[in-house]
Amino acid sequence: MPLAAVNDFVIRFANVNGSGSASANEMFARAIMRMGVPVAPRNVFPSNIQGLPTWYEIRVTEAGHLGARGGTDLMVAMNPQTFAADVQSIEPDGYLVYDSTRAIPPGSLRADINVIGLPLTAMCNAEYSDPRQRQLFKNIICVGALSALLDMDFAELEKLIGEQYQGKDKLIAPNVHALHLGRDHALKNFACPIGLRLKRSDKVGNRILLEGNAAAALGAVYGGATVCAWYPITPSSSLAEGFARYCKRFRHDPDTGAARYAIVQAEDEIASIGMVIGAAWNGARAFTATSGPGISLMQEFLGFAYFAEIPAVVFDVQRAGPSTGMPTRTQQCDLINTAYASHGDTKHVLLLPEDPAEAFDFGAAAFDVADRLQTPVFVMLDLDIGMNHRLCRPLAWDDNRRYDRGKVLSAEDLEKARDFGRYMDVDGDAIGYRTYPGTHPAKGSFFTRGTSHDARARYSEAGATYVEGMQRLLRKLETAKNILPPPLRINAPAATRYGVIYYGSTAPAMTEASEILGRAGHSLDLMRVRAFPFHQDVANFIADHDAVFVVEQNRDAQLRSLIVNELNIDPVRLVPILHYDGTSITARFISGAIGGWLDTLKVTPLRKAVS
Amino acid sequence: MTYLAKPKFHHPSLPKNAIGFTRRDYEASTSTLCAGCGHDSISAAIIEACFELAIEPHRVAKISGIGCSSKTPDYFLGASHGFNSVHGRMPSVLTGANLANRDLIYLGVSGDGDSASIGLGQFAHSMRRGVNMTYIVENNGVYGLTKGQFSATADRGSKSKKGVVNTDNAIDLVAMALQLGASFVARSFSGDKGQLVPIIKAAIEHGGAALIDVISPCIAFNNHPGSTKSLDYVRAHNEAVNRLDVLLGREPITVDYAPGEVVSVTQHDGSVLRLRKLNDDYDPRDRLAAMDFLQQQAAEGQIVTGLLFIDPDAEDLHANLNTVRAPLNQLGDAALCPGSAALDKINASLR
Ligand SMILES: Cc1ncc(C[n+]2csc(CCOP(=O)(O)OP(=O)(O)O)c2C)c(N)n1
Ligand code: SF4
Ligand SMILES: [Mg+2]
Asked: What are the tens digits of pLDDT across the range A186-234?
């Protein structure tokens, strides 16, 4: 029996990079979304494989499960180099759509799948003479055919074409024509629709589809960043590029055309963070965007900024390490490298968004937090959030909100102030007052240094002075706990002895996994951690349970280590659930791992009885 | 900021500059460097230059890396904000600071280890970006702070205090700066205040990347026979190509020069540089000729000093980036935040 499902399947496009497939794929995903059916698209783009393969996977999910599912129900195999492997990866009774212009060797197809051959190249060659057009329209024809095979609302595709080529109206008709070519061919040659079908629904609501890097970049624009220094690295480059794009749109003086921002592509990540720190010291909101290797290079400066108390915002779009690792694969592997970045006793503030909407919120808030706490702040994205379109709530901004520039003294403040010492803890929150250079002719200047200093920023190697400063830095992080986004707790309907802690891009898969586990009789309380240092609620949550699973995407259980270390938790209470093969974590994986553990627990008494 | 500097009360006999400040107002903590260290003479020259230019000290940001040389910002301009950063990274911190507020004067202080060894990359990139700054390298050919190892500017064949001969070729920061497009390049000697002070003044008035390579003997570790950065060696091999007077727009020109000997260069800000030629063939407005001349003289073991190159019409990084006139650090919410209506439009385009 061919697979049959409505609004609940996975379709995967196997493409050749640079063949213009990306925009056709995205249009296809958006059209499904416009039908009110949630989609979870993901890019897979290996960095170094022959044939430049890229895959674009769309999970169609009426139930709104936005994590990766695993497996492929319908494969659109357009890359000859990966064809054999792509065919192998189809679920039994699934579907294969391929370009049948050239006959494929007999025996290379499986008997247990349903094969749909579209003569795409032949159709294009018959219709178009320009090679580039042949290539581009091939993708559109394919989408047209799929619309018939899956019973898609064709009007949505036509509308999207109209929007995409708004202003280039000449291109609309030929694209719509190509859509029709594919659709008509499928209707004529196959029994449409196949078992996998789309049906209009109302599960999308007012949600939007965008990439985390674009959202974070927009957050930086809204958060008032004026200086960006960066060095290209996948998967973070599109964040800096997004900032440039949005600044072009929103940050030019309408009269003079001059820029209210400065972006420097630095010579490396050391220079990037140096510029950020220099700019922030001088009163501008500044950030850099990077990935693990960049964080490694920034270490010395990050310790400096911690010790000299300079705000800086760093977006870390994590990818699989160590070293170059798997540069185009996702992981949550920089937690320890950022939390304790640099030599000596350091500890940094991390914000852990789960999706683009939160990447926008935290991206903007990071600048307030950094200014308020006068310390570096990391916004931890990963490739899965950063470089994939994700369905999320609309971005929101309160026009009454004002930037919190923290404790900064103006010239008038200095006139009134009886005393000024850069690192004096006047308010008891362990945060001193700072001044921007050039503020006052006679008052408020100080010397910023990485060497040990007293409350007046004067050089001092007196042990007691040093210890006092280091203790104050610790107290400052206590202040931080109350201004950072608190963890979110979702209790199971019935009381349970088990809990789960997770963060970031694990969220959608975790939510789905808890539903699966719930159906299997394993109920779990959930806690999504959103910042480091940890809020007291995290400790309370662990205290409330016999065992807590810590689900994360790295080998060494970095979040778990941080919890053990910072909250003094007995490691036995925290069960690591680790996914780190570079693919997006799935509900199948999590529910399998946690379910297996809980099942073992359940049978233990039985084994005892036998022995 | 429209703050007017208030003259302080000092002994009436102390000379005052145009804004009523005495030299004392440009001083700071007492130096902790070795007595006789060349770096202290450079600090004194910076104080003198700022005094003569009548700069309000708080309008200067002094930024350095790590080294004996980089410690010196603690010893001049006590009323300025200072930033003693990490080893070799002064240029990036200064670049960022400059982007945040284009209205301050940026004084970068570094050493030869700081700029030519660990920080060569940042040195080079700040030059090619044209950051508006005065970048002073206090060049002693050794790592003073870590006790006398060779730095990358030590000449091949020169001898360390322990008798080791340097076999690596030297990096010439002046040659590099010229190649990289710096618009003001000078070399001087800590022992020649008369030459150094006007060069610093001209560099501060300059509107682009200004490098001053100051040979600054390390008394403790590099002042022995066999060193090419010792006081005696530099005195014997110093070949000044010109002498400089800096005339600010408001000052009447009082000095008379014999015709033909003097080149006048007017910078963007109106300051006039009068260069008395000591070498007839040398034209500091010709970058290629300067590079050529310097290479030839270096091959003969001569240390060429003076204002070596100037492009008086230089533009800086802000011009390249077309940033607004107002300092970026003074833009408020209204200028920076696009607001909820714009966000709603973005949301609508993402459905
Ligand atoms: C990352 C790092 N590596 C090494 C050092 C040790 N160190 C301090 S100063 C210095 C050399 C300074 O030489 P230079 O810039 O020529 O300054 P000088 O003391 O000669 O004025 C070194 C290697 C350091 N502070 N940081
Ligand atoms: S060691 Fe050398 S460079 Fe350092 S202070 Fe002493 S003389 Fe100056
Ligand atoms: Mg040195």
From this structure: 999 999 999 999 999 999 999 999 999 999 999 999 999 999 999 999 9
Distance to chain A for B201, nearest Cα, Å: 20
The 10s digit of each residue's pLDDT in B84-128 is 999 999 999 999 999 999 999 999 999 999 999 999 999 999 999
**Alpha helices, DSSP H, located in A445-586:** 463-483, 507-519, 536-543, 558-567
How far is ligand 3, taken at its centre, from the CA of residue B110, in Å?
Answer: 9
Q: How far apart are CA A206 and CA A280, in angstroms?
A: 37
At A262, list the tokens: 């400065």
Phi/psi at A496 (5° precision): -140, 155
Angle between helix B120-129 and helix B173-180 axes, rounded to 10 deg: 40
Structure tokens at B139: 């060049």
Measured CA to CA, the distance from residue A532 to residue A216 in angstroms comes to 19
**Range A488-607 classified under CATH 3.40.50.920:** yes
Cα(A299) to ligand 3 centroid in Å equals 24
**Amino acid (one-letter) located at B20:** G
Token match 């070293």: residue? A323
Pocket flag, ligand 2, residue B71 (CB < 6 Å): no
User: What 3-state class would DSSP assign to B324?
Assistant: coil
Residue A17 has what pLDDT?
86
Under an 8 A CB cutoff, do B58 and A436 touch? no
Looking at the CA of B87, name the nearest ligand. Answer: 1
pLDDT score of B250:
56
The better pLDDT of the pair A104, B154 is held by B154
Q: Do B338 and A221 touch (CB under 8 A)?
A: yes
CATH architecture of residue range(s) A210-392: 3-Layer(aba) Sandwich (3.40)
Q: Region A358-373: what's the mean pLDDT?
A: 98
Question: Which helix (DSSP H) or strand (DSSP E) does residue A337 occupy?
Answer: helix A335-339
Q: Note the CATH number of domain B23-321.
A: 3.40.50.970
Question: What single DSSP character describes residue A571?
Answer: G
Cα A84 to ligand 3 centre (Å): 63
ipTM value, please give it: 0.95
Say if residue A609's pLDDT is above 50. Answer: no
Fold type of domain A5-197:
Pyruvate-ferredoxin Oxidoreductase; domain 3 (3.40.920)
Cβ contact B86–A301 (<8 Å): yes
Residue type (1 letter), A487: P
Q: Which position has the higher pLDDT, A310 or B2?
A: A310
Ligand 1 binding pocket (C-beta < 6 A) is: B 66-69, 87, 111-114, 138, 140, 142-146, 151
pTM of the model: 0.96
Closest CA to A318 of A580, A586, A530: A580
pLDDT digit string, tens, across residues B12-30: 789 999 999 999 999 999 9
CA-nearest residue, atom 5 of ligand 2: B33
Helix axes A237-250, A212-222, angle to 10 degrees: 50
A210-392 with A488-607: one CATH topology?
yes
Sites in chain B below the pLDDT cut of 50: 1-6
B222's CB contacts (< 8 A; 6+ apart) are B140, B141, B142, B144, B148, B160, B161, B229, B230
State mean pLDDT over A308-325: 97
